Amino acid sequence: MTILIQLVYSGIALGMIYAVIAFGYQLTFATSGTLNFGQGEALMLGALVGLTLVDTLGLNYWLMIPIVCLFGLVQGAFVERIGVKPALRIKSEFGWIMSTIALGIIFKNVAENLWGRDDLKFPSPLPEAPINLLGANVLPMELLVVVGALLMMAAVEFFNRRSIYGKAVVATANDRDAAGLMGINTSLVITFSYALSSMAAAFAGVLVAPLTLTGATMGAVLGLKAFAVAIIGGLSSGMGVLVGGVILGVAETTTAFYISTGYKDVPGLVLLLLVLAVKPAGLFGKTAIKKV
């Protein structure tokens, strides 16, 4: 029983990382109907920039986080302006898909040339000795991942509900054409949503980096699994990505332990196929009716 609880703890921490990245997918999809398929690379860049600031420049981990978040904002805005905006302007249905994938590959190649191909160790800001919680051991960094992920998503939700700029994002998400008629610069809102999306991914990068190895390839798998979480939970539901992330994270850790690490990716893919077959909008998503 102790082992199972410990696996659940690790799964929840992993699932929260998936949820933060999937939350970024939600932000862009709500305002523009597009997704950044280079989201995993935004996480990777955030982790590597954070490692440089901490390990090379000697910056404190906690002071490094806002700088990485600022970097994520700039990187996300760059992706939208270079890769997504031109496709939306000409109403290309698939241009933004190829553009974001291409930019993701470029970012990966740049990272390999700047930081090398070898995985690097990210120093943990917290003690590495486990804490006994309800009869099982949990790493302090895993607790930080859960708390940090929840705080990030709560902060974005608070911003959207309480600030005038956040309400412009919500209005654009609800009806882009109507928001434009009311004087909202929807193009700028879409850019901002991409910036927030990449900021969330970069933040997730510095959270997960101390628990794993940091390198140019670390974002690809995390980005794909987060996309699966977004589909499973529903691209229109914040609660959905939380639940979907936890389900996938726990399924992976328990499968890896009780069956084999070679099968740890199978439960998530099976769940994805089942959700697409039974409830295409996701477990918590709402099916939209399009008027033509």
TrEMBL record:
The keyword Transmembrane is annotated on this UniProt entry: yes
Superkingdom, taxonomy of origin: Bacteria
Gene Ontology biological process: amino acid transport
TM segment ranges: 7-27, 61-82, 94-111, 131-156, 177-196, 202-222, 229-251, 266-285
UniProt cross-references to Pfam families, sorted A to Z: BPD_transp_2
Keyword field: Amino-acid transport, Cell membrane, Membrane, Transmembrane, Transmembrane helix, Transport
Localization, UniProt: Cell membrane
GO MF, one example: transmembrane transporter activity
Membrane topology category: Multi-pass membrane protein
Coiled-coil segments on the chain, per record: none
Gene Ontology terms: cellular component: plasma membrane
Protein's UniProt keywords contain Thylakoid: no
CDD domains: TM_PBP1_LivH_like (cd06582)
Annotated family: Belongs to the binding-protein-dependent transport system permease family. LivHM subfamily.
Protein name as catalogued: ABC transporter permease
Species this chain originates from: Pandoraea oxalativorans
Lineage start: Bacteria, Pseudomonadati, Pseudomonadota, Betaproteobacteria, Burkholderiales
